[in-house]
């Protein structure tokens, strides 16, 4: 090696330092992951699923995956499951709810598909101490809720997440699903390490995220959550889990990640190239959220220094990753005393060996996936370019994999729906029965609680206050 790099010490010494530092950090994460311990449920828990847990599921789908997921949630015995969807999907989802468990599953709607608006609708109808957001394909294990609730015995904890793994869509996982599994393995190690080292986490994944309901009932939270803009003008509807995680940190709540087999959830991923579009959306969300955490809100610097370092490391990761192949290419053109193929082969073997070490927890569980390690290596280089591209396209805030979803501010959708309902009911005649006795014979005010017009039992449209109306003037026109 010294002979190989003798002519390039000024270049390779800095690169060697970078490489040493990166693998040192990985070893630290690996050790922290090994010594990390999940919180075990107590024999006499403060919170129990059948009394204290509501599951809120924002969805626009009613496929077979939803049925399997719902059955896994019910096996954990929550008090209620609230499905929130767009109006056109009310019928199919209500039919599924009736088929699965009509006593525990309730279906609500919003005017237009928008995940944040759907989440807030679920929050408003939750009356338990603990609220769980779950994706419609998140499959739980029977002890998942018990392990999640164990964390809330600590009154300082406001949000809890879990480890994750891939559920195969078909009989065998595609290359894209295996790549997703590799990424989840790396993520599980990172969140366990950060939880053990300083108690923080970059993001409580929205696939299954649990919070104290009182935090989410805060009107200030709901207002900011549904009016979230990037640079003051680009609506943010994805990245809800990033927003929630930042809210925990900025409002003094601690978080915890239950990384254990009992709480591990299974989730499906795209089985084709659309997985790349998912990753691009997640990458943009990460850039935007990390910028806010580090340079706008800045609570992380002192509360969670290791998480702060992790975020900063992600900023330079594309450059450090690409520095390797750039150096090898330069060496191939200038190191005439060694064949180029020797240099390239040595570099590739080194990369494969180190990646196998990093992925060893996954490969011990699924050794057949070792054939996809070269694809993972290539994907990482592609991902480096993707991160740079995402950085320069942060104004693109749509979902990418769902056409027409997520391009409108959640609060605007709700305001437009209310305005439309007011216009629709402006010519509605309400007959006031003469036998109804009202003090002073006047309706002084119709508040939100006094009058609500149901829309086929699917949602409620709030009618604003109207001027004083004499009782004798029945029938009355609402203007």
Automatic annotation (TrEMBL):
<feature type="transmembrane region" description="Helical">
    <location>
        <begin position="319"/>
        <end position="338"/>
    </location>
</feature>
<keyword id="KW-0328">Glycosyltransferase</keyword>
<keyword id="KW-0812">Transmembrane</keyword>
<feature type="transmembrane region" description="Helical">
    <location>
        <begin position="373"/>
        <end position="392"/>
    </location>
</feature>
<dbReference type="InterPro" id="IPR029044">
    <property type="entry name" value="Nucleotide-diphossugar_trans"/>
</dbReference>
<feature type="transmembrane region" description="Helical">
    <location>
        <begin position="12"/>
        <end position="36"/>
    </location>
</feature>
<protein>
    <recommendedName>
        <fullName>Glycosyltransferase family 2 protein</fullName>
    </recommendedName>
</protein>
<keyword id="KW-0325">Glycoprotein</keyword>
<dbReference type="Pfam" id="PF13641">
    <property type="entry name" value="Glyco_tranf_2_3"/>
</dbReference>
<keyword id="KW-0472">Membrane</keyword>
<keyword id="KW-1133">Transmembrane helix</keyword>
<dbReference type="GO" id="GO:0016757">
    <property type="term" value="F:glycosyltransferase activity"/>
</dbReference>
<keyword id="KW-0808">Transferase</keyword>
<dbReference type="GO" id="GO:0016020">
    <property type="term" value="C:membrane"/>
</dbReference>
<dbReference type="InterPro" id="IPR052427">
    <property type="entry name" value="Glycosyltrans_GT2/GT47"/>
</dbReference>
